[in-house]
Design a protein that fits this description.
The structure holds two protein chains of two kinds. By secondary structure, chain A is α+β, with helices and mostly antiparallel strands. Chain A has two domains: 107 residues, 60s Ribosomal Protein L30, Chain: A; 127 residues, no CATH class. Chain A is 37% helix and 22% strand. Chain A contains eight helices and nine strands. The longest helix of chain A has 19 residues. The radius of gyration of chain A is 19 Å and the shape is globular. Chain B has a single domain, classed as Fe-S hydro-lyase, tartrate dehydratase beta-type, catalytic domain (fumarase). Chain B is of the alpha/beta class. Chain B is built from eight helices and nine strands. Classes of the chains: A alpha+beta, B alpha/beta. At the A-B interface, helix 3, helix 5 and helix 6 of A face strand 4, helix 6, strand 9 and helix 8 of B.
Chain lengths: 288, 191
Amino acid sequence: MDLKDSILELIRRASTDLSEDVVKSLSEAYENEDEGTPARGVFKTILENVKMAKEQSTPICQDTGSLLFYIDFPEGESEKKYSEAIEGAAIEATKKQYLRPNAVDPVTSKNSGNNIGVNAPYIHFHQWDKDEVRIRVMLKGGGSENVGTQYKLPFPPLKAGRDLAGVRKVVIDAVVNAQGLGCAPGTLGIGIGGDRITSYALSKVQFFRKIGERSADPEIAKLEKDLNETLNKLQIGPMGFGGKTTVLDVFISSQARHPATFFVAISYMCWAFRRKTMVLKNGEVIYD
Amino acid sequence: MIKLQIPISEEDIRSLKVGDEVLLSGTIVTARDEAHKLMVDEKPEFIREYLKESVIYHCGPVVKQNESGEWSFVSAGPTTSAREEPYQSTVVCEYNVRGVIGKGGMGAKTLEGLKKCGAVYFHAIGGAGTLIANSVKKVKKVFKLEEFGSPEAFWVIEVEDFPVVVTMDSHEGSLHKEVLEKSKKIMEELL
């Protein structure tokens, strides 16, 4: 399979076939909600839809998101080779209805019709020491992106200081503000520290972790578990209908901050948590 | 489960309450940001006959055109309705719309419009794109496809047993308001 076709298949999988860890988490949420509640009904519909999408090979959600690629490649490889293959695959995926055309020029409001635009798809390149190439894609929906947010600590309205207790407060605030609007139950990616840009970048890349995967830092892992439990007490529930599951998981990571700044970026991933990975090694393609 | 056939009378719509589960059948129209702006700014006539006593669907579908030029819906869940808050009540009253399908709920201005003009807000399951597309039986017409692009166009579609839940009714009832107030109260205890 050539590079373009293998990326096309990666996009197809991301759009139509929800990863096992997410399906498992949604199934558990369904079992956990009480019989006869709207929340349980929502999970039933969600699980039916996920099954149908896989069988029909059609998008789980019509908002197939912004295409965000993360590529790790060995020394000496050309970035251009990958960006051209990704463009070709995105055009083809749009023609095959794996993707909705989602690249709009903000000046003219014109939709390009093929998911190609300035910085669309967006590709994060990273050179690494392995002799293999890893291509990861995330389909990031617009509704969930709109409820993402960034705080700078201290945040006086909540008396949130410059420590993990302060981080906890603003995360709760963000989820209450989001209600069901980001297609709850969401999964949170949180970046602590860095600058305006890198805090968001760190928050987004957390979405490649598997549901249930805790941070290696014990303090952060503790906060992840605490927030997971705390946020599910809010009773916002799936779609904001009320219920026991408001988030599926919380992923946090930290990085160095400037002495004067303390940013907390919160990215919200909808329940249709779509990301897939492929590895190219010795001419072989392996999908996750 | 309540089955409703479109067009819907004002009496029938006013009998619905928050929490009612409904299966909608008949002709509805998709409209989102560009379409709502147009309906408020220019009040176009071309869409009037399709909206009368019908339902607006906040949706930007994935669509497919076959060789003979016919369109079909491939994936078509609801989009976030909050963006139409500035426009919705005006559109509902201007075009005699009986319902709005979307996700996430809407605000006070819309709730007031629903009461005044006799309409409800139906919540569909966000992200259930394939499942909902399967209840779209036919694409009857499309307006503004070239100008707005496929997600933003007005798609006139025939649906059968489209599953929704009433989360805002014509008597000032709003599940979204309730859940928001409750979660804010719980938040105070958790902080």
